[in-house]
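Hi all, long-time lurker, first post. I run a small reading group and we've been trying to get comfortable going from sequence to structure in the token notation. Rather than ask abstract questions, I figured I'd post a concrete chain and ask someone more experienced to write out its structure so we can walk through it together at our next meeting. Sequence below, copied exactly:
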Amino acid sequence: MKKNFSDLDDSYWNFDHPDHDAANAKFLTRHKTAGVYEVAGLTFNCPSGIYQPHEFGSTRFAIRGMFSQLPSPGSRLLELGTGSGAIGIVLAATGLDVTLLDIDPVSVECAKNNALDNGISVSVLQSDLFSAVENQKYDVIFFNIPLLDKPIEEPLEIISCDFGGELFSRFLTEAPDYLLPGGKVCVVVGNIGNRESMLKALENYEDKIVHAEYYALTGAWRWLISAKPLT
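-- Answer (accepted) --
Happy to help. Here is the structure in token form:
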């Protein structure tokens, strides 16, 4: 695996699912029902309509990768698009000062309840990207961003689609204003996303791939990128 996202050649982008539309429909159907999940020894109760920590979802991929990127206990970590809160709550259990954000009020309430039920202290706020944390700064900003380069055609697809990489670009444009000196962003991306827009958004960062997984049945890649703004 290449060390930098920009070094990935065309072979990494040959995503070929035999029935991509059916797979997306199955993904959405799975999230239209409530579920209870165990992640890293903690329990997460999830209502329908939010991103849930399924066994093969990006939540568990992100947790596997983020354990290699944790700053020292007490450091400040911000998670955007928290969904069930699983990632941020698991990371908070290591001793970090964690704030969770989501634009969806149902996700915000879910994450609050899951933190309380697991006895983990976090702050959870409703926010469109960084709108709820103006003037705050963090050591690490994490975003398990929607991966699929597809227009949103039904409300639930907000959890899976980032058409044209617009959200990814907004995130990386705004993030430096919320980083402490030496801070970094960590973001999950995949080869079902918009390669051109992601590369452009990362031009102002020094990035490296810190965790990667390949799924041979579909040719799908997931990457966890750690990136620091260029000075």
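A couple of things your group might point at:
The mean pLDDT is 91.
Residues 66 and 224 are 8 Å apart (CA to CA).
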